[in-house]
Automatic annotation (TrEMBL), chain B:
Top-rank taxon, per record: Bacteria
InterPro entries: AAA+_ATPase, ABC_carbohydrate_import_ATPase, ABC_transporter-like_ATP-bd, ABC_transporter-like_CS, P-loop_NTPase
Protein name: D-ribose transporter ATP-binding protein
Alphabetized UniProt keyword annotations: ATP-binding, Cell membrane, Membrane, Nucleotide-binding, Repeat, Sugar transport, Translocase, Transport
Amino acid sequence: MNRQTLQQTAPHTTQHQTGNQRFLPDNLNGAWRNRLLRWETLLLVFVALAFFANTQLSPYFLDPWSLSDATFNFTEKAIIALPMALLIIARDIDLSVASTIALSSVAMGAANSAGIDPAGMVAIGAGVGLLAGLFNGYIITRFDIPAIVVTIGTMSLYRGIAYIVLGDGVYRDYPQGFAFFGQGYVYGVISFEFTLFLLLAVIFAVILHKTIFGRRVFAIGNNPTAALFSGINVKRHRMVLFTLVGLFSGIAAILLTSRIGSTRPSIAMGWELEVITMVVLGGVSIMGGAGSIAGVFIAVFLMGLVTFGMGLLNVPGIVMSIFTGILLIAVIGTPIIWRRVVQAQKMRSKMRGG
Amino acid sequence: MDTPVLELKNVSKTFPGVKALDGVGLQLFPGQVTALIGENGAGKSTLVKVLTGIYTPDGGEIRVGDTVVEFHAATDAVKSGISAIHQEAVMFDELSVTENIFINNQDRNWLGMLDWPLMRKRARQLLEYLDVPVDPQTPLKNLSVAHKHMVSFASAISHNSNIVIMDEPTASLSHQEINDLYKLVRRLKEEGKAILFISHKFDEIFEICDRYTVFRDGQLVGSGMIGAVTQNDLVAMMVGRTVEQVYPKTDAEIGPIVMTVQGLSHPTEFNDISFDLRKGEILGFYGLVGAGRSEVMQALFGLTKTNAGSMTLQNKPYAPANTSQAISSGLVYVPEDRQHQGAILSLPIFQNITLPRLGGLSRHGFIDMACEYDVARHYAQSLNLKAASLSENVENLSGGNQQKVVIGKWLATNPNVIVVDEPTKGIDIGSKAAVHQFMGDLVAQGLSVIMVSSELPEIMGMSDRIIVMHEGRIAARFDRDTASAEAIVTAATGAA
Ligand SMILES: Nc1ncnc2c1ncn2[C@@H]1O[C@H](COP(=O)(O)OP(=O)(O)OP(=O)(O)O)[C@@H](O)[C@H]1O
Ligand SMILES: [Mg+2]
């Protein structure tokens, strides 16, 4: 829309204010932007520290192939973290993502056994994820049940179906053509998975920060009632977000299944917490309404580097999950505690001064 | 002359980019009501928050009686005998009336446990004192807006403080509730309490206040006895110029019917609502708080489901399933409750203003930020919004300026029919004239306006026709020329 139509469509300024108009700058010397970037900057510092620590731990760390290998253990989770960030910003959450991976992986395994070709398997993997997400979204918005309740339910449900289908069996023997998604390289040491993640990160950043959809996601997360009064179809947006998360869980399932070349019903167990930790560590408010893709992007690398470092130190898996738990609490708790400390400090200095 | 029970000297408070209070002073006297007036953003609510320990001032002195006090928390102020009804009262919908009244000063029994029987008893006494016919046990969410206000009054007087502050207590009340409040104020006065009364309504200032204090842009510009000044004097002090408080009803050409509503009914809220609306017309809806006006309007906007009746808009059947359908059909609703429904407080001003019309500011779903700022600035400036920048969060604005953001947001959608619910609630006199002027401009351009208002002068001054509702039904209809204040009020109370 150009200036002229703006003038036409807007009623003219009333007499009363002319000569008395206040100048309103777009923002105060970028203060707004600075505030937004502060957490991201801190994260970058941590990334640098973790990177340095890893170089000290292993002389082979800086080797391009070893760096490339390091990306594999977080890329699939990171791909789910992107839509999950949008979902959490909109005040929702999905705990069923890891179970969706299991369901989707089992579906692909079954399809493979039935002789369906890799292209068909990919479609089935993504499709099952999408349907799982759609189901979550439908139940949550149609019956107005909190997301956390429904997705805890479907977390057991989806995983349960995977167990029923597969028992303690395993699907193997994925065809050669399917291996590319999780094992292929696009250019030199750059894997297909990692390239896909970079691409998706850019796309999600644009969606969240530059489009109407993204703006509405923020609006819903900040005040769902006012969003509704502003003509936003809140339910439909929530449905779309759950479906997106499901779809990308399906895509993660394709990558993961292809990479490890087998499906067990326990596949991706516990991933939902790691995905959510990435999102929250990236500065997305667990209460909704605030966050950025840049933050999540950096947090993904931080998590990746730390887990890789612990791998180099031969830290057992259970300790890693203890670490993830502590990280989650620390990240959510620190800002809250910080605020209290600052307030107490202010109070004390005032009492002394006055 | 009396000695003041509360005295402020040289108090300042600065926010990033704004000097909200700049060395102000204030005196309150026992048994007297002092009016605090000033434009939106003049610093009135900031002063209230300083006096109640919510904000700590950057400098200055607060004296209660003979002692200099410093407040670090809301409880400190209560201990010094100051309590307040805030402009945006924090109330808890899920809690009971009793729990809300005693939210920050619970009674305890000798074991140190919360003494609910005592609190319930006191709550009942307070509600009786205030003449509010509600059970202290009911959850707050079941109460009407007016009764919720009364609960916040009950909470304020439950401390039995000597100093009572009221920040725009009548902004969303209709005449009946306002009269009840006046009664309360007079009683408190007789009991020797000092009252600070913030208001944008001059009739009530002259009716119940004894003194005045005027702020402009965070500074004290005058104070004295109400008897010694006229309304024009006060306005001149407030805005630094004169404002004509005539309702600028421009004679827009009334055209063909744009909307009809036939027998619209809701199981509990309203019944058999029929009217039509013409192009270029302002249709006023008057009634007591709780008469069902907002519910009818929300049904027009696709928010409330109806169980009978039909509507047409622009000669086409109109049955909006949701708000976005209503907006794309050209009907918008400016809600009364700006904090919850109207604005998104934790987002910047410009994002609030453009939210319902983002479609028109984008290409293939991508927002054109430059255009977005332009539109936001246009509406912000034409409503004379006071803010440090367009990226300021709405929660940092004064109450009246928040209301301006909400109005700007809906004007920006270029609707055909605009439904405004209490459009000038909490807006200062100059900006009120601007909002009325705006409405005049809108109808002159061929829009139609439905205006819900509890302010009789506004309804009578602005409307072409007036519909009065009582207990969910239409009680009377008036034309502009035949309407009289008595007839309207009688119809609203159901006595007609
Ligand atoms: N928390 C805050 N952060 C930043 N600025 C603030 C904050 N609170 C108030 N202000 C600014 O301080 C100024 C005074 O606001 P205040 O709420 O005291 O006005 P007011 O006189 O009560 O106006 P109204 O009549 O609209 O209620 C305004 O410009 C407002 O934007
Ligand atoms: Mg105020």
